[in-house]
Amino acid sequence: MLFLSQEFLLFFLTVFVLYWSVFKNSMNGQDSLLMVSSIIFYGWTDTRFLILIGISGTLNYGLAVLIEQNESDRLRSAWLWTGVILNILILGYFKYFGFFYESLACSLEGMGLPLEKRYFKIALPIGISFFTFQMIGYLIDVNNGSSVACRKPIKFFTYVLYFPKILAGPIERAQNFLPSIERVRTYEQEMISDGMRQFLWGAFAKTVIADGLSPLVDGIHTDPGAAPASTLWLGACLYLIQLYADFSGYSNMAIGTSKMLGIPLSINFRSPLFALNVSDFWRRWHVSLTSWMMDYLFTPLAFMLRQYGRPGASLAIMVTFLAVGVWHGANWTFIVFGLIQGLLFLPLVASGKVNVTRPGTGLVYGARQIAAGAFTFILMAASFVWMRADSIAVGSSYWKGMVGPGLWTNPSINLFNMLVPLLFFLLLEWLGRGQDHMLTKVGSLRTTILRWSIYAVILVQIALYSNTQGATFIYFAF
Q1: Helices marked H in 352-391 — which ranges?
Q2: Contact (Cβ atoms closer than 8 angstroms) between residue 45 and residue 1
Q3: 3-state SS of 34-52?
Q4: Is residue 361 within 8 Å of residue 433, measured between CB atoms?
Q5: What is the dihedral of CA 55, 57, 59, 63, to 10 degrees?
Q6: Widest distance between CA atoms in the chain
């Protein structure tokens, strides 16, 4: 059941009406409705996955209680590591087993030790990377005392299954989410209106920008060897915008949906297209994943390696971004992507400029900021080629073509039909920097005609440029 599909809109309308009418005065009723509706939502894709997430949820529910109630540090640590290992094993089997088996078979064959080759087509549960990391973080937080083990099954499974975030995040921390459902949610018109605006902006980003750019990007990446360097560079830049519009579109629709139910979720993007360096980019891109990696992987590693100074910090960065790459999928291209991101960080670590000051939200950047922003965007666009490449050969071919002939020729991409919505998208993204979403300022406009004119422009563009409503999201594959 995808956002913007007729099934989802009917589903959510039903939940919304029941939530704010029949169950408006009952916390348990609201929680029960959310849990049941989340089971229906997730099971809509494949009921088999409900068994898996039920086992995972039950396992982590029990382990968190065991961790909390044991006073022995050794036992707490034992239960924590049991949970972490079991979660990783579940994720590893569904997401990586086929990849590692085939890689091992190829390696042994090259050594003259053939292993029977089998093609493992294991169904990948949607959202497994997101809810697995959520559960690992939950166990660590309970062990550290920053979160309390939830003893109420309905609330815990609402946290695990909550339908706006279950498929592609944000990766929510229990200490942020659970307090929101520890009380009766009251109907707040401003929050619901803001949720509608955020959903609208996400719908525009997904259906108009991401889906509109998709055929252009696919045409270039399918056969990069046939395109001149100028086209490949433009294709890389458009893919970064497409991926951002697709994933931030999902995130905004998820967060907006949740706001309409009175439950705030974490911001997942902070205008990354206007970042000033690689570190700044990753503080703005997929914030819930980046902060998870920094809190639960980089920080412990950096602490362990602190005696080695900057070389130790550099190693911690490389391991962290290798994990970021592997998290995205079972392909050598993701490993290359992670290693590239780690390498791009090293100059900042060496110069001590990892924690660059974020730019303000003023209308105009200075010349130095413009140059830094443009360089960062081009650098990240080139590196994200490996996110899109199907294989090492394709990624290498694309990069080779980017430094090949035709760099100063006109790109062979017809952007005419996408030019107006793309410029409109980037303009509002620029003006909305520093806000929860790009229509926050629009919602605060006192001129009713201007405010509704902007909404109308967005709706008209969705109607005119989008003919793929209900298309799947790129990050569902991760």
Answers
A1: 367-383, 385-388
A2: yes
A3: HHHHHHHHHHCCCCHHHHH
A4: yes
A5: 180
A6: 75
Q: What is the pLDDT of residue 125?
A: 82
SS3 labels along 388-449: HCCCHHHHHHHHHHHCCCCCCCCCCCCCHHHHHHHHHHHHHHHHCCCCCCCCHHHHCCCCHH
Q: Please, what's the b/e burial string for 259-270 (b: 16 or more CB within 10 A of its CB; e: otherwise)?
A: bbbbbebbbbbb
Q: What is the DSSP letter of 263?
A: -
Q: How far apart are CA 74 and CA 275, in angstroms?
A: 43
**C-alpha distances in angstroms, 400 versus 225, 231, 297, 385, 404?**
9, 13, 34, 12, 6
Of the candidates 478, 100, 142, the one whose C-alpha atom is nearest the C-alpha of residue 286 is 478
Q: What is the pLDDT of residues 289-321, one digit of tens each?
A: 999 999 999 999 999 998 888 889 899 999 999
Question: CA-CA distance, 9 to 315, in Å (whole number)?
Answer: 47
Tokens 């290498």 belong to 396
Q: Using CA atoms in the order 199, 422, 285, 344, what is the torsion angle rounded to 10 degrees? A: 170
- Tokens representing 173 are 């921390």
Under 8 Å between Cβ of 325 and 338: yes
Reduce the DSSP state of residue 187 to 3 states and report it.
coil
**The token pair that represents 97 in the structure block:** 């087993």
Measured in whole angstroms, the distance separating CA 185 from the mean position of its chain's CA atoms is 27
pLDDT, one tens digit per residue, over 181-240 is 988 899 999 999 999 999 999 999 999 999 999 999 988 888 888 889 999 999 999 999
DSSP letter at 146 equals S
Who contacts 464 (Cβ-Cβ below 8 Å, separation ≥6)?
A: none
Residue type, 139: L
* pLDDT tens per residue, range 322-370: 999 999 887 889 999 999 999 999 888 877 766 655 555 555 567 888 8
Amino acid at site 136: I
